[in-house]
Design brief:
By secondary structure, the chain is an alpha/beta fold. It has 13 helices and 10 strands. The chain has a domain of 157 residues. This is F-box domain-containing protein.
Length: 364
């Protein structure tokens, strides 16, 4: 008998092919594994950090003073005299880190995170382009760096501090770009505004209102940038760079920033202190000015967690009355932490811009 014809069955649809997993980019076809044990990166991280301290870096105390020093040329001092930007010496550290990160793969793994730890847009132009107006330079640099970080999430994760200046040049585009950048920096904890024109107060308010930046722990700004503070409900340390700080204290209340533990640069008026006691009852560290009246200092007794008082001064003859009053307040503070009374001032000749020298005062 002839074989029976097999009935044709409908073919099953082919299962969709799974996309091949993306392979990690090769480190380098010519990379020498021994590079990781050569040169500077053989040192422990703390020693590398110590070496990098030889370069001027932007800190919370850094200001826009243009006092000539041994590294300034007469031409540069004249150029910066009327410009609210920092000197070119602050470019040396990032330039060095960038060069080290481009040496080899092993060095990139160590120095690239140090380079991108800080988003800095507050330094003057480079020597090759001295004629560009500072406001145009700041505006273009802000847009370029923020746009670059938006395209590189891996680099955005490295940014922990933002040191910036604002100008009116294209502010309606630059500030929203900056804000979008901040919102996409998951490890950002510090915002420092080196300069912003007073006329930008409304622009800053319109940009930052109804915005929340919950990762921010330290805010260093002029008082008229107080709207930024309202967007940082988890802030712990507040530094006022200009004016008396009254606007910042008011912004703390409106922004419900009740976790503040450190306050610097504010004048201690009785009205301000009464508001501060209600807004930030857990204040632990405060900076006061020499010669502060006893009536203003008396309110400090209301802060049950206070353990450090810094007396700010500009010379070596701080008033003894301020020291004695601060000492008495600390001795009666119920805080269980170790207490410190410090004098802090800046030597015009010996200390770099923005740095402070602290001298500890015995409480006994």
């Amino acid at each position: 008998m002839p074989p029976k014809k097999k009935t044709k069955t409908a073919a099953e649809p082919a299962a969709p092919k799974k996309a091949a997993p993306k392979k990690a980019a090769p480190k380098s076809s010519g990379e020498d594994p021994s590079n990781g044990q050569r040169g500077l990166i053989r040192l422990p991280p703390e020693l590398i950090a110590k070496v990098l301290e030889n370069y001027r870096s932007i800190g919370n105390f850094t200001t826009r003073t243009h006092r000539p020093d041994s590294g300034d040329t007469e031409k540069e001092v004249d150029l910066l005299a009327d410009e609210p930007v920092l000197k070119r010496v602050y470019l040396e550290r990032p330039d060095t880190l960038r060069a080290l990160s481009q040496t080899c793969v092993a060095y990139r793994g160590v120095f690239l995170p140090l380079l991108f730890e800080r988003l800095e847009v507050c330094v003057t132009t480079r020597p090759g382009n001295p004629t560009k107006a500072f406001y145009r330079h700041i505006s273009e640099t802000m847009q370029r760096k923020c746009s670059g970080l938006a395209e590189r999430p891996d680099l955005s994760e490295m940014v922990a501090k933002a040191h910036v200046s604002f100008t009116k040049q294209n502010a309606d585009k630059v500030l929203p770009t900056f804000l979008r950048c901040l919102e996409n920096l998951p490890n950002l904890h510090t915002i420092k505004v080196v300069f912003a024109p007073l006329s930008m107060t409304t622009t800053i308010k319109n940009t930052f209102e109804k915005v929340s930046l919950p990762t921010i722990r330290t805010v260093v700004v002029p008082a008229y940038c107080h709207e930024i503070l309202r967007a940082c409900p988890e802030v712990r340390s507040v530094w006022c760079m200009e004016e008396d700080g009254g606007k910042l204290v008011a912004a703390l209340g409106k922004g419900k920033c009740g976790k503040v533990e450190e306050l610097r640069g504010c004048s201690l008026t009785p009205h301000m202190m009464k508001r501060l006691v209600k807004i930030a009852p857990n204040l632990r560290i405060i900076e006061i000015n020499e010669g502060e009246p006893d009536d203003n200092l008396a309110t400090l007794k209301s802060f049950k967690q206070l353990h450090t008082i810094d007396v700010a001064r500009s010379d070596a003859n701080s008033e003894k009355a301020t020291i004695e009053s601060a000492r008495a307040i600390l001795k009666t503070s119920p805080s269980r932490e170790k207490k410190y009374l410090r004098l802090c001032w800046k030597h015009e000749k010996d200390v770099d811009d923005g740095e402070r020298e602290f001298v500890y005062i015995d409480l006994d």
